[in-house]
């Protein structure tokens, strides 16, 4: 409240708190303040507040290797097309031909990315799980009459601000060496939109499908309106917001707080 340029301090603040093992209680404190100003459960952690920025930076730092083992193989496949490639995806073509090979290929990529994410909970860094656990319980406390808010509090970060952003901008998360070309970028954008919607708890309803600007995406997404997708998301969110000790996954890396 007193610092005008507080967002400039987020990255060094997160690094400092990580070093001293104080990040989780700090995030819990600023998230609780954030929730006091949140009037509706469906807008939880959607803005750019101090709390959400801190969690964003934390995920970029400690989740780097987690993203790499989870998404890099399929991102590489999109970048270097095989026989399952979407080819030259364009909006006009999709509107006209999405029911043909393009739909099958897009479904293949979305299925693969979604499958890799929901089975990756064992690889999620403990610190991220601890933060998600804290956010989940704060959300449930703030909106006790909404049974879904504890899940949306976690999905708004891990799906919307982590996996979906990494899919559409893999170069910013060091999953690709440079910005994808126009063809690959179009494909990644469509995959990211689908992952965002799949990851939004309780979003697999007809009313939510109206949020797609593109008619072809509404039609395409109807193929995902199955209970198994909702249950997979719920189980994944339960797993990554648990404080139970995880089995050694063999994929953890030390966090480097100094760069350059």
UniProtKB/TrEMBL annotation:
SMART domains in the record: RasGAP (SM00323)
Keyword annotations: GTPase activation
Ras-GAP domain mapped to chain residues: 5-200
GO molecular function annotation: GTPase activator activity
Family annotation (Pfam families): RasGAP (PF00616)
Region span, Disordered: 238-260
InterPro entries, per the entry: Ras_GTPase (IPR039360), RasGAP_CS (IPR023152), RasGAP_dom (IPR001936), Rho_GTPase_activation_prot (IPR008936)
PANTHER family xref list: RAS GTPASE-ACTIVATING PROTEIN 2, RAS GTPASE-ACTIVATING PROTEINS
The protein's name: RASA2 protein
Organism: Panurus biarmicus
